[in-house]
Amino acid sequence: MKIYRFMMILLCIFISPWLWAQEKVLRIAVAIYDPPFVMQIANNQFYGFDIAMMEDVCRRIGYTCQFIATPNNLLIERVRSRQADLAVSSIIITVKRLQQVNFSLPYLVSQARFLGPAKLAAQPFDIDLLDNKKIGITDNAFLSLIKIMGIKKPKVILFEHDNLMIQALRSGAIDIAFVDNPTAHYWHMNSSGSLRAMGEPVTFGAGIGIAVNRNNFKLLSVINPALLDYQNSEAFKDDYHKYLLHFSTDTPPQNAANLQ
């Protein structure tokens, strides 16, 4: 009996590392702070719509998610340089980005909106209101959109993540922020009235997607079916209602029919 027990212990010792080595992990670059898509509690513990979505997708394809906090402006680079397998955080699909990485099918419509202090928001909104203003962004894809709008002499400041930008907006270091529409709604509802969504949402890009390295077609080929399965599941409906519904009144999901 003792010999049998001893052999079982040895077997566990040798097999456990092998089993651990077989665990399939997806390294996923995510923004440090991008509510309501990505929020961080502590010790790299994340939650939000994109986190819930990726955990579901990982489960469907038999992987474990490893989320890596990353400055917004480095998300694409982390995937391009293979420091991460994927990147999510309300990443807008643009022509320029498609030259650097591949994207999954879009899972949400991409829209941008201005967010400003209540005093500025009390004025009738007009593009001329933004002339000569300091405009904060965390997504450099918005630069081209700001140029198209015809704002005169804007000073655009790129921040590493939303929290730094919101602090700058509150302190007056910037005059206004340009963010995705759900984020504008989030701060509109969670700033005790000090910040307000301004103007109408502007549709931009080809939707929000998951960034994948251009050479990893195998991973993309399993991500897309899993993403479609998720979008057609009750989990998608639950996550959308939990994280986005109250902050996306103008932004229907990519497969809105599933939420009827």
UniProtKB/TrEMBL annotation:
Domain Solute-binding protein family 3/N-terminal intervals: 25-247
Any one Pfam family match given in the protein's UniProt record, by short name: SBP_bac_3
UniProt keyword list: Signal
Coiled coil: none
Similarity annotation: Belongs to the bacterial solute-binding protein 3 family.
Protein name per Swiss-Prot or TrEMBL: Putative amino acid ABC transporter, periplasmic binding protein
